Amino acid sequence: MRKIEFKQLFLMIAMAMMAVTFTSCDKDDDKDDDTNVPSGIDTSVNLVGKWTLSSSNVSMKVGDKNFTDYMVEMLMAQMGLNKEAAEALVAEMMSGDGGMNEGIPTSGTMELKADGTYVALFNDDEADMGTWKVNDTKTKLTITSPNEDPEQDDDVMVFDIKTLTNSLMSIQMKEQQKEDMDEDGTDETTIDVEMNITFTR
Fold first, then answer.
1. Residue 6 has pLDDT above 60, yes or no
2. Which of 63, 131, 170, 187 could form a disulfide with 178 if both were Cys (CB 3.0 to 4.6 A apart)?
3. Does 1 map to a domain?
4. Which of 13, 28, 11, 10 is nearest to 143 (CA)?
5. What is the pLDDT of residues 101-115, one digit of tens each?
6. Residue 117 within a domain
7. How far is CA 165 from the centre of its chain?
């Protein structure tokens, strides 16, 4: 069984973004200059504890089309497939063994510990461990997973906290990249990826 962990979410989004470079936050990210805390965030909530995954999804857009529609059109144009065959191939690419959706957790827990470490167990697989931190206004949650290759930087994911109560936490991450989809030397196509995860406790 394949291990589902934060670093695989990281890699899945990177693949969808066609080699988007995620950058680690520096120390200043612990502070937040914006004192306007969204109404859905209770800053008195202590994040330490065990959170149970309630829902998760990833959406991708290429230009003004969702990712699957774009891939279907590309396969039809470049490989001469009919729409039905192209849709079947895209569905297999997304959900088959090793597909892009395989890295999305569907069940499990994430325990945020008081010492700044976390243990996540998704889809009844091996535990993923690393460190976590939240900024002062509790609007940003940073998850760091150690890279198995000591010569590579750790995988860092910075989530916007959209809702935070004692019993509910919803987090979101958005990435955007310009790409040269028609190989004319100009990065003219915008690729957007959005991940939303909701936890309860």
1. no
2. 187
3. no
4. 10
5. 556 777 889 999 999
6. yes
7. 21
